[in-house]
Every structure is written in structure tokens, then in C-alpha cells.
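Example 3.
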Amino acid sequence: MVSKQSALIKNLLALLLGIGFGLGLIVAGMSNPTKVLAFLDVLGDWDPSLAIVMASALGTLIVSQKYFLKNSEPLSSSAASSCDGNRSGVDASLIAGSTLFGLGWGLSGICPGPAFIGLASGNLGSLVFFASMYAGFIAYRWLNRSR
Amino acid sequence: MSISAVISAIIGGSLIGLVAALLLFTHNRVAGISGIAAGILPPWNNESPWRASFLTGMLLSVPLYRSLLGEIPLELSASLPVLAIAGLLVGYGSRLGGGCTSGHGICGIARLSTRSIVATLVFMLAAGLVVFGVRHGF
């Protein structure tokens, strides 16, 4: 039953990492849409703190990859597929998708990670956004089901 | 910007980066939240359980933070219809573009993926233009 045990450990680890990710978003202020919009409002009263969040996250990840993960395999295509599919190169889908995503992010100040913090917070606007986001996921899958 | 806001940004950001590194190390998976979130929809496969666990952890971080550290500021400036449209755009767009702020913006850039760098520039520009349009008028 080793495989069952390792699956349990894997899920427990994922749970702990999810807690860590959520706490990171909250501490960083990413879960507050107004703060995110203040970052995106470059020509207004700009709040640069989310640039510091991204730089800190990138720095930590790059250093970790370089010093702690150097003996592990470079990211395999199956790992990338958890997010970015098996696609390569800049294509029309990447540009169109990122544009639509940016429009939605700019309208609301919410991206998928903070949407989960909003769901757990339980206020109505956050629930509406969360439900619509999943409708968007489902619409994408339905419209692209032949691929 | 206060000193405490800078420190919070550094601590929060570092924690996000650390989790992304640990997820790579323990699961060999990218911490792209749109991919993880859409990945719990049926049909389920052997990737679904860890994704559901990770997302459950994210939800649990809210009561945990509240009980240990206090209230979580969450102010929405958009109306409910706008939030509904924005949610659709974020959901559909992140799947079509293959990632969001975390997957492209952090994990993708960290491994110097051209796709992710382009995606991040595009969604930052689009979001910035929308905010400019809404707040200052075109």
C-alpha cells in the first residue's frame, strides 16, 4: 500500500502548500482588489507594492531553482502541462487569451489565486466573480472540446 | 508607500515564490492557479486530487489568517455585473492564454519562457489600459 500512502502524503503536502500560497497572497495584499487596481493604475496614484511582490516571488523561485532544485530534472513538459498545455512559441491564442485575461483583471482587480481568497471571505461580489470565472473555464473547455 | 507595506510585500511575495519552488520540488508541477483551478473540473484524472487539496488549502488560509493575524482587507470597486463579466474574461482568457499571474507571471518568467514573458507583458498592458480607461477616461 506504499502507493496509497505516497498519494496521501502528496495530497497533504499540496494542502499545506495551498495554505502557504493563500497566506502569501493575503500578506502580500494581492487578495485586495483595490490594492491590485492601485498597482495597475500606473498613471494615477501608483502603488508599486505588487511589483515588489512579483520581484520577491520571482527572486525566491529563481534562487530556489538554482541552488535547491539543480539536481532535479529540468521542468518536464508534463509539469508545464499543468498550466500551459503542451504548446510552444508565441501564438494567436496566447495573445488573445492574455488580452482577455488582462481586461478581466483590470475590470475587477481579481486574478484566479485571489478569487479563491475572495470565495472563502464570502462577500457577494467575490462569489459572483468566482462563479463567473468557473463559467469561463467551462466555456473554454466546451468551445475547444474537439481539440 | 509605508515601510510596513514594503515589508508585507516582500514577505508575501517570498512565501509565494517559496511555495512555487516547493510545488516544483515535491510534485514537479507549476504553481499556476488557473490551471490548477480548471483542473478540478470533470473528467477527473490522477492529477485532480492534489489540485483539489491545494485549492482547499488556499481556502483554509483565510480562516487561518483571520484567527492568527486579524481581518483581511478586501474592497471591491466594481459593480456586480462588471464582476460577472470580469470573471468570465479571467476564466476564459487564462485558459486560452495558458496561464495567469502565477503560472505565466511568476513560474513562467522564472524559467525564462518566451511565451510567459510575452503573456505577462500583454495582460499587464491590457489591465493597465482598462484601469486607465475606467479611472481617467480615454
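Residues 2-28 of chain A form the longest helix (27 residues). The radius of gyration of chain A is 18 Å.
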